Amino acid sequence: MHLSDGFGRSFKYLRLSVTEACNFRCSYCLPDGYRKCAGPEPLNLDEIRRIATAFSELGIHKIRLTGGEPTIRRDFDAIATAIATLPLVKKLALTTNGYRLATRAQTWFDAGVRGLNVSLDSLDPARFQQITGHDRCNEILRGIDAAFETGFEQVKINAVYMKGINDHEVDAYLRLVQHQPLSVRFIELMETGDHAAFFRKHHISSESIADKLLQEGWTPKLKAADAGPANEYLHPDYQGSIGLIAPYAKDFCKSCNRLRFSSLGKLHLCLFGEFGVPMRALLQSDDQLEELKARLLVAVKGKASSHHLATGNSGQTSNLSAIGG
Predict the structure, then answer these.
(1) Which H or E element spans position 291?
(2) Distance CA 73, CA 48 (A)
(3) Phi, psi of 315 (to 5 degrees)
(4) Which end of the chain is more exposed for a tag (fewer CB within 10 A), N or C?
(5) 13-311 in CATH: which number?
């Protein structure tokens, strides 16, 4: 048994959110900070272990822990260990804002995390603080160095690309990857329910970056089967790579290979879908595993062919923290 939809796409990659909470106040996501609403608590350790087990037995072999900021959970290390030790999980990755990376890189590596995506929307400390509400740019850069020293072989930087804010920093990021095996991925700003006006003001296509890379001798890299949505570029004079995530590009969804599961126990077939499929009732006991797997197989068959961002429809996604961005 493996997870596939009605459009010939199969799924090997899961983005598993463990919290909606985040301690940053990024202008494109939570400019006023995270505010807890009344409702259920996030999945506990046993529930997370059960859903990861079910997905791994259905062919998911790469799991990425996301949030919010996943490392604010006190039991984050235990969560990572529980997933990394599942026999069918080949790779455990983490997306983080990096605020604890300098001091926790070794702990996370020992817990089984092998891939790191670190959000770093500017290399200029003042601009970074303007975007995130935190004066932590240099601290996060030190954390990236600590990750390499710890033994992480794959470290990626995520930079949301925004007109009039950081679109002039491309050359600075290129210099960053010249002598480090980093992958910098520029992510086009996406419209969400809470931030339509911000999107209209600051959205810019990543095509200009692609044109610049090709003109300067970069070449496209063949994408692995379990790779994320970035189209990556390599250059013989650079140790690192550049990736572009362009959700508004034609056929962006055609090669989708990933599913999302929220911290509240819902399967999300698309970041910009209209609803999540409730699964939490099937996470209460180990003996529910087969029923859970059967429910996942049926639900994934209902995945739509694509999102509808081009028409201004961002589904139920109010902000990118809600189900892991």
Answers:
(1) helix 289-300
(2) 13
(3) 65, -140
(4) N
(5) 3.20.20.70
